[in-house]
TrEMBL record:
GO terms for cellular component: exocyst; Golgi apparatus; growth cone; membrane; midbody; perinuclear region of cytoplasm. Keywords: Acetylation, Cell projection, Cytoplasm, Exocytosis, Golgi apparatus, Protein transport, Transport. It comes from Cyanoderma ruficeps (rufous-capped babbler). This is Exocyst complex component 3. It is found in: Cell projection, Growth cone; Cytoplasm, Perinuclear region; Golgi apparatus; Midbody. It holds the Pfam family Sec6. InterPro entries: EXOC3/Sec6, EXOC3/Sec6_C. GO terms for molecular function: SNARE binding. Component of the exocyst complex involved in the docking of exocytic vesicles with fusion sites on the plasma membrane. It comes from the Eukaryota. Belongs to the SEC6 family.
Amino acid sequence: MEETDREAVATAVQRVAGMLQRPDQLDKVEQYRRREARKKASVEARLKAAIQSQLDGVRTGLSQLHNALNDVKDIQQSLIDVNKDWRQSINTIENLKDVKDAVVQHSQLAAAVENLKNIFSVPEIVRETHDLTERGELLHAHRKLMDLECSRDNLMYEQYRMDSKNTHDMNLIHTYFGDMQKLSEELAKQLWMVVQRSLVTVRRDPTLLVSVVRIIEREEKIDRRMLDRKKQTGFIPPGRPKKWKEKMFNILERTVSTRIEGTQADTRESDKMWLVRHLEIIRKYVLDDLLVAKTLLDQCFPPHYDIFNRLLNMYHQALATRMQELAAEDLEANEIVSLLTWVLNTYTSAEMMGNSELSPEVDVNSLDDLISQNVVDQLLSKYMSTLTSNIIGWLRKALETDKKDWIKETEPEADQDGYYQTTLPAIVFQMFEQNLQVAAQINEDLKTKVLILCLQQMNSFLTRYKDEAQLYKEDHLKNRQYPQCYVQYMIAVINNCQTFKESIISLKRKYLKSDMEDTLSISHANMDATLDIIAKEGCSSLLDEVFMDLEPHLNELMTKKWLMGSNAVGTICVTVEDYFNDFAKIKKPYKKTMTLEAHRRVVVEYIRAIMLKRISFKNAEERKEGAERMIKEAEQFRFLFKKLAAGSGEDTEGLCDIIEAIAEVIKLTDPSLLYLEVSTLVSKYPDIRDDHIAALLTVRGDASRDMKQTIIETLDQGPSQPNPNYVPIFKEITVPTLTVPKLLK
């Protein structure tokens, strides 16, 4: 307390010091004193009120504790009295055991009396119930069955209460009601038959199905009641719980599985389209059943059965099981496609689960996969492997069939524009189209894979095609009379190359996404190159055919006979034109190339005839006559190939100019100008060699050895400025006899 007083005095001193810091504040001392006195009085009043409140609370608490103590004493006394009375009544309770037994016996007898009528009429009720079941009056039959079961259960329960260990009496009751169990089984059999045919029954007689559901609901309620009594008493009648609701769903599940499995009417041996038919029947049945379940069946069951969704899950599980079974079989390529198309597309499409009449109850996005992605991948891998083998076999067979056409004695067919062709490109790309259309039904990724596979196999196929075309040519050269239509079929082979090119482009445009084109650019380029080689070799073989026929006439050129007026060039032109009447049925890209090549080869052979030095002109008159004949024949060639190249837009005159230029060298009358004329020739055609000049001068016949040597040496020293557009031609021509050194000796 002293410490508290000191702290209070110190605080007061601080407050007074704070209020009297200036002299003028001394005048307010009385005012300060009154204010502090008021504060003190206020604080004291609050303290008194608080203390008084605490005292009142303590007083009330003490009073309640006193009352509680009195109550506890009263309760204690009451418990003592109850204990005393209980101890006194023990003997009395033991004396009432006989009364208790009498009460139990009375209860049992009362139950027996109550069921006495049913007990004596059990055989009659059994017969009536059996008849009702046979007549299909299921509700009435079940009502009587319930009455029988109720009588039996009550008797057995009372017996259980009286003596639970007395199995003899229990068995006696059970035996007496033994026919009732058979009735229950017969009724259940009738119910399950209706449940199995529920989707048919609901259309014809929905009342019958409703009766079945009502019976099952009754049994479910009895099951629940019996189970509750078992928890309380330990007794449950025999045959309970029946669980007919659970059995009903099991029956429905087995029915759905059987319905799915039973749709396979054919096998692969009896029908190649067995799987397509099987899947289509499944689709139709499942869709029809679900529509019936939604519109009719759902109304015959209580809402808590959720019958539509239960059936939907059953069908989905049954379908998943069936699809997995089918996937595990040794399916062919077309069957794999049919299965995957159905599983991945048809199942969720508007033709089945996506049908508008099934929404919103059926959400295709929430349906699980019928087969796992792993199984899908395995099937796709097997399909690609099988398809690869099939395509190789199809292409080989198509080529063998086409080869048989090559040796026919009838000309090949022509397309609408009159170009010869065989059926090979159409067969090959029709096969590709069919497989791509089938793959597109599954997904885009498979379509792209199949396209890449087709083009890869096409690349290999074209190599074999090239080899077979070469063998065809070689076989023909062994006997030019066979095959009879060799030229026409070789033209068809050439045209097929162009058709293949166009078909490849069309196929890529139709089935390949633009962002994937780069992946096939190399393969496409390789195929184009192979096709160009086939076409080029085909054109070359046809020209070989022409020049083999021209060989006797080419051998007449630049001979005495030729100078005397041979019509060799006329015959050459007629023969070439005759062949080109057939070659007109070659498609334009290759026809143009072939015309230019024929022109070039004719000119080359003509120049080669000059360089062979079959003739040496004796005088200026012969040189003039020979040169003019050469110019005339060059004009014939020019006219011929201009006619053959009509519409191609190509310049066909340049090659014939070489013949005219050589003719000018031969025609020259002034030997002193010979060097100038030859140098002009060399400047125009820089690939001309020394042996060509020597051979040309030899044919001319008036050039001495010194002149030849001088001209050749001078030309060798001169600058050469070749025309960049000039295509060398002399490099193909050899002078087979004397070399230049021997000639100059």
